[in-house]
Structure formats: structure tokens, C-alpha cells
Amino acid sequence: GMEKVVVCPYKRPNALYRLICFPWAGGGTSQLAQWGKLFSSSVEVFSVRLPGRESRHKEPFAKDMATVVNEITSALLKELQEKPFAFFGHSFGSYISFAVALHLKEKYGLEPFHLFLSGAHAPHSEAFLPIKTVSISDTKDEDVLKYIEVLGGTPPELLQSEDIKEHLILTFREDLRVLQTLSFEKAERNIPFSCDITCFNGSEDKSHDVEAWHDLTSGDISFYELPGGHFYLLEPSNEIFLTKHITKCIENAGL
User: 12, 33, 222, 249: which could join 44 in a potential S-S bond, CB 3.0 to 4.6 Å?
Assistant: First the structure.
């Protein structure tokens, strides 16, 4: 099952570390899988592919976050036990990476040595609540499409094709449905992680409650704002900053 769930176009069997990347809502593996070529030979990049898209487009979409987490965990468990790993997630991908990391820690005592989170609220913050309460079934297709266009990140020419547009709207809805099933209650005095966390955000994106990530780790936490909107990370200059910064964090982890 690993080939089904994970894409790795730049295989580096001798790499010292792995970076597992998690896609945004409606997204596939293409952009983040290409990060592989931007990293040095010490880092191998995996990009996670969810059901309902790309080579898995004939499979039904996942019904809830627990299903997503279990599938990713069972596909990756052997690899994650072999060498130190970090997670990078953007938006919806940040929440998946958080949920997978939590499951790995609770069930297997495994933890990423660094969580890189982009364009996301801390999952126990007040700011996350509106996402959980928006009614997906009452939202019209054209409103979903408008929202996707406002967020950016989708090449306008793709939206010219009715089939692609329909599939994108459907995928976005289904991903949002999964996100709404993420339940995390921060227990008193329980700090789930000990790894370092880095939060990135676009300067023109709406602000995210990133401060609350402080509650979730005993490790160091840092925040960076990069020029651009919600999809600031697709700008080549930001991509260079991100991959260089992530490399520095990985190499300084001193593992």
C-alpha cells in the first residue's frame, strides 16, 4: 500500500532524514512532491496522496479523519521507524499532519522531530471552530468555487474545464467534510508533543491562531510570515525560503 499512498519522485535511499508532506484541501501531490529536487541528498521527500484524486481517483473519498490517519499510518509505519522524520503540511494538510503525529505518538510512541505547519490554526483554538460548523451540504457549488478562486493556488486554466472544475469542487467539499471530523480536546496539563514546531503564514492571508500551538509542545516554536496570500508557498522565492529554512532546521536538529 505505500506506493498508493505516498509519492516520492526523487528517491534517496541513503538520506538521513525524511520529510513527509501533506496536501491542502482539494490538492494532490504534484507541487510538494517536486520539493524533492530542492533538498540536499540528506533529505528524502514523501508527498501523501489521499483517496479520490490522481491515481486514486476511482477510490471513494475518505469518510473521516480517523480513516485518513489510519491509512497513512499503516502505509508509512515501517519507513517512520527506520529514520528520523519531519512533517510539513499546508492548510488542510497541517491538520492531517497534526492528527497523524498525534496518533503515532499515542499508539506507537513515535514522534516527528519537527512539525512544519503552514496556513493553519491550532486545532484546539477558538479560531478553528467556524471551520467545524460551516454547513457543507447547504453551500452551493458556485460559492465553493468562488472560495477556491479567492484562496488561489488553482491555475485559472484548469477551471475552464467543466470536468476538472466539478472534480475540484467535489474534492474540496469532501476534504472539508473530513476536516470537520477532526476532534481534539486539549487536556489540562497534557502537552502532546516534545518536538519543535515552525508555523508559516502568508502576509496577505487571513491571520491564523498560531500562538495556540505553544500549548501543544514542550519544544521550541517559531513563526514566519512570507509575502503573499493563502498559497504564498507556490511562489518560487517563498519555496526557496521554505526549503532552505526546513533544511537548516533538519540539519540543526543534531539527530
Answer: 12
Predicted confidence at residue 30, as pLDDT, reads 87
DSSP state letter for 200: E
- Per the structure, the count of domains in the chain is 1
| pTM > 0.90 | yes
Q: How far apart are CA 181 and CA 99, in angstroms?
A: 11
List, for residues 177-235, the tens digit of each pLDDT value.
999 999 898 887 889 999 999 999 999 998 888 889 999 999 999 999 999 999 999 99
Tell me which residues of the chain have a pLDDT lower than 50.
none
Rounded to whole angstroms, the Cα distance separating 59 from 221 reads 38
Residues 6+ apart with CB under 8 A from 78: none
pLDDT given at position 255: 62
Under a CB-based contact definition with an 8 Å cutoff, are residues 241 and 203 in contact? no
User: For position 189, what pLDDT does the model report?
Assistant: 80
First-to-last alpha carbon distance for the chain, in angstroms, is 29
CA distances from 63 to 107, 168, 173, 174, 180 (A): 21, 17, 11, 8, 11
Catalytic residues: 91, 230
Residue 35 near residue 46, CB atoms below 8 Å: no
Q: Can you give the residue range of the structural domain that contains 138?
A: 2-252
Angle between helices 92-108 and 162-179 (to 10 degrees): 40
Cell 470537520 belongs to 180
106 φ, ψ (degrees, to nearest 5): -70, -40
Three cell numbers, residue 152: 488561489
**Residue 170, Cβ density class (10 Å: 0-12 exposed, 13-18 middle, ≥19 buried):** middle
How far, in Å, CA of 200 to CA of 232, rounded? 10
